[in-house]
Amino acid sequence: MSRTLLLRVSAGILFLVGGWIAYTQNRGGAAPQLTVNKVKDDLYEIEGDGGNVAVYITNEGLILVDDKYERDHEAIMEKLKGISNQPVKYILSTHYHEDHSGGNAKFLSTAEIISTANARKNIVNRVQSNAGIVPSPARVTFTQESDLFLGGKEVRARFFGRGHTNGDAVIYFPALRTIHTGDLMAGNTPLIDYPGGGSLVDWTATLDEVMHDLDFDVVIPGHGAVTTKPGLLAYRNGVERLQNRVRGLIREGKSADDVGKVMIAEYGWVDKDLHFQWSLPGMMTELR
Questions:
Q1: Residues 124-143 pLDDT 10s
Q2: What is the pTM of this model?
Q3: Could you tell me where the beta strands, DSSP code E, fall in 25-177?
Q4: How many CA atoms lie within 13 A of 229 on its CB side?
Q5: Three-class SS state of 31
Q6: What average pLDDT is seen over the chain?
Q7: Domain ranges in the chain?
Q8: Where would a tag sit more exposed on the chain, N or C end, judged by fewer CB atoms within 10 A?
């Protein structure tokens, strides 16, 4: 692993927190500056504003993972020019949220977008309550796995189970031993989109399957800095601790207001943010 990547991993927690704050609080105004980071040979990552975009270079075109908000399209295209002169051929969507799929419409005339069937349904059914625009749905979907081959390179998209939503795809670059988790790893504490079919209980089992089934060293999270497999394991264990903490509070007879106060004090939730809108009501039901 390169020294640059090691330095970025050591700062991962700070970047993850910052990235999640940007996702939950900085949705208005001008888009922040985007930055490009080299992950491994022919694989780059674009950070800033919405979810992390992975860029895989082949001699027949580019494969992207996610495309941020619609407002980021021109900035993304400008960054791509500095990486390769190849056109974007495919976009693999990790899930349906606007900060990951909002740019779909800008790419559909020239590229194919692939997502899980549930991610497409959530877009079509306009599930995201805080979306500024409704993203364009993928034209190609899968339920369990989709393999993509371009320019002699392979990328796999797999659905392992519920977590952040009911349609989270994990993108695997087997030759590079690297995965993109989407928001199955993002921020300091998980945001569970219960309206979108998410599950805090299933989240740990889903990540267990990812770590058991895929051979990888490097992890591109949905938001924040590139990390490693041990970093993903630490995040998974944090999700489990959250489960146990909330379940214990519910067993003590605590109300939703009481649990919310604990989440603010111990997990950095911000009052009335998306955690309170999406996560808290569902947790109170699922963890009883």
A1: 999 999 999 999 999 999 99
A2: 0.89
A3: 35-40, 43-47, 53-58, 61-65, 88-92, 112-116, 140-142, 145-150, 153-159, 169-173
A4: 13
A5: coil
A6: 92
A7: 3-229
A8: C
